[in-house]
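A favour, since you know our structure tokens better than I do. Just paste the record in under my message, thanks.
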Amino acid sequence: MGATAAIGAVLIALAGPAVAKAPAAVPDGFISLFDGKTLSGWRGDMTLWSVRDGAITGGSEQLIDKNTYLILEREFPNFELRFKYRFANDFGNSGIQFRSGQVPGNFAMAGMQANVTPITKDIDRFAMLYDELGDRQEMVLLGQRAEVTRIQSGGGGTGRIVRSVTEMVNPREAILKAVKPTGEAWNEGVVIVHGNRVVQAVNGYLAIDATINDPLSPRDGLIGLQLHISKPSYVQFKDIVIKPLDSFPDISGRFISNPVPAPEPRRTYKDSTRVKTPDTPLPE
């Protein structure tokens, strides 16, 4: 089956009648956030979110004209979140919003996001840590172990967002090679958040390891699933479970990680809220 036919088949499957499937067993210490049948415990635009084939499904066969979210009605400030996801088409875009707030709009959110996408041309943005509607924008990019801070700019009231990369936790090519193709295959994601540290893994590969030392960064808030502005597209999530954390867990040896040196420049800053604004090297 060709790529176009495969995408069409998935679209038909997602748009068809809902078929209930039993969710996977919940690991010890975790709480299920989705019963496999309903969107109980979540709020959002229900013209765009539904349950299909035992999975939370976001999307439309029409133009999606703004970012919108399915928002969990319970807050978890420190947690480990596990989930499976897949896209119906290669231009899809989504994410796990956390420590976030709801803002005016069609269930719009602002705050940190663990990016969830198919493999795109902008490979450094796959599985990145992003600041939705915030001034930090692309906080930590694919493969980076990095610290994010905020400093004065020119001694006045303007701030700079500084990213300092110590190493690459994996070569980007190794992470992307582990991603399953768009269509029927499911990818597995893990997001761990505690205190000032955020870790994301994809299919067993460590994707980012972030230390957030920005004094304006919130330490609690809402969790949500993103449906991004797009041409007609669909994203699905299932087996979504969460474990509240009292401390950051020992993840040594848990995820595949083969560190390599980070390319220069390793310390950069942004003064702009515009998406994809290039970072500027910052002298030590």
Notes: The chain is about 5% helix and 45% strand. Residues 1-8 have pLDDT under 50 and may be disordered.
